[in-house]
Specification:
The complex is a heterodimer of chains A (190) and B (131). Chain A has 3 helices and 6 strands. Chain A is α+β, with helices and mostly antiparallel strands and 190 residues long. Chain A has a 6-stranded antiparallel beta sheet with strand order 1-2-4-5-6-3, with helices on one face. The chains are: A alpha+beta (190), B mainly alpha (131).
C-alpha cells in the first residue's frame, strides 16, 4: 500500500535500478582494483608469441600473506602459485592480441597439483604453453619449478573481454586498465 | 552407523569431487590430496566441513589435518625438517596415516604427501567405530 501515485512508484523503481547498477559498477571497479594489486610474477624471461612463456617469481619473506601461512613455516599459498601461472598465461594472450582486452580472467582450472612448497629466498620459474588462443578464450598447460623440483602444475583456461562489451559507459575504465597493463608489461619484459 | 570401508570410501570420494572439482576416477585410495588432487590450505577447511556433514560427525580442529599446529611450532620444525619431537607429535596426532617413507626423511616439503585419500578413509572408519 503506497501513498505515491503510479508515476511516483515507477520513478522510485527506476531510481532503485539506477542505484543498483551504480553499486554493481562501483563494486566491479573495486574488484578490478583489487585484482590489479596482485603481481605474482617478477620477470618475463622468454616469450614465443602465441606459444610459450617463461617467467620467474622470487619469493620474499616480506610478502604479507606469509605471516599467517604459516608462522613457523612460511610458504607461498597454493592459490598464489596458481595465480603465477595465470598471470604468465595472461601475458601470452595480451601479446598475441595486442592488448585488445582489459579483462583476462580464469575461466577454469583442471588437474591442479601442488607437488612441493616454495619458501622465501627461492625462485619459481613458470613455463606455460598455450594450447589455443582465440578471440575471447584461451587454454594452457603450465608448471612451476624451483631448483629443478616441481612445485605446481595445472591445465587452465582464460576468458578475455572488455567491460564495454556489456556496458558501453565502461570504455574509459577499459582504456585505463589496458594502459596500466602496458606499463606493467614494460617493467616485466625489461 | 555400521558403514563398510567401501561405503566410507565412496562418500569420501564424493566429498573430494565436490570440494576439489576433480573427477571421481582421479580420487583413488592412494591419491595425495595436494600432489594429485590439487588441494591446498583453503580446501582442507572445506573438506573437513563436508566430511562432518556427510558422516554426521564432529571433527575437532586440527584432528584430521594437524597442519597449523605442526607448522607453527618452532619446536617441531627445524631447518626445513621435522624435529624428532615434531615427528613424534605428528605420529601421535595422525594415527590414521602411513609414515613409512616420510620417517626416513621428514622433509617439511613432503608433509603434504602424507595426506592421502586412504588416510582420510582410515580416520573416518576409526571415528565411526568409536561412535
Amino acid at each position: 500500500m503506497s501513498i505515491l501515485p503510479d508515476s511516483g512508484i515507477k520513478f522510485k523503481k527506476y531510481q532503485k535500478q539506477k542505484n543498483e547498477k551504480r553499486l554493481v559498477k562501483q563494486s566491479s571497479i573495486a574488484k578490478i582494483a583489487a585484482i590489479m594489486r596482485f603481481i605474482l610474477i617478477d620477470r618475463i624471461f622468454s616469450l614465443e608469441p602465441s606459444s610459450r612463456i617463461k617467467t620467474v617469481k622470487s619469493l620474499s619473506l616480506a610478502e604479507e600473506y606469509l605471516a599467517d601461512h604459516f608462522p613457523a613455516f612460511p610458504v607461498l599459498p597454493g592459490v598464489l602459485l596458481l595465480e603465477g601461472l595465470i598471470e604468465s598465461a595472461s601475458w601470452l594472450v595480451r601479446d598475441a592480441e595486442n592488448f585488445a582486452h582489459s579483462m583476462l580472467l580464469l575461466e577454469q582450472a583442471r588437474n591442479v597439483k601442488y607437488k612441493s612448497f616454495l619458501a622465501p629466498g627461492s625462485q619459481i620459474e613458470y613455463t606455460v604453453d598455450a594450447k589455443t588462443i582465440e578471440e575471447n578464450v584461451s587454454s594452457f598447460t603450465g608448471f612451476g619449478a624451483s631448483d629443478g623440483e616441481r612445485i605446481v602444475e595445472a591445465k587452465f583456461g582464460l576468458r578475455h573481454f572488455n567491460l564495454a562489451d556489456e556496458d558501453s559507459t565502461m570504455a574509459a575504465v577499459d582504456a585505463e586498465i589496458i594502459e596500466n597493463m602496458k606499463k606493467r608489461w614494460k617493467l616485466l619484459k625489461n | 552407523m555400521a558403514m563398510s570401508r567401501n561405503e566410507i570410501f565412496q562418500e569420501v570420494q564424493e566429498v573430494m569431487v565436490d570440494a576439489l572439482g576433480v573427477d571421481d576416477d582421479e580420487v583413488t585410495t592412494g591419491a595425495k590430496l595436494m600432489g594429485d588432487l590439487g588441494a591446498e590450505s583453503i580446501d582442507f577447511l572445506d573438506i573437513v566441513f563436508r566430511l562432518e556433514k556427510a558422516f554426521g560427525i564432529k571433527i575437532p580442529r586440527e584432528e584430521l589435518f594437524p597442519v597449523e599446529s605442526m607448522m607453527s611450532n618452532p619446536d617441531f620444525v627445524d631447518n626445513g625438517k621435522l624435529t624428532e619431537k615434531g615427528l613424534a607429535e605428528l605420529k601421535k596426532a595422525m594415527p590414521h596415516t602411513d609414515f613409512a617413507g616420510f620417517e626416513n626423511d621428514p622433509d617439511i616439503n613432503k608433509l603434504g604427501d602424507l595426506f592421502t585419500v586412504n588416510s582420510v578413509v582410515n580416520y573416518i572408519e576409526t571415528k565411526l567405530n568409536a561412535a
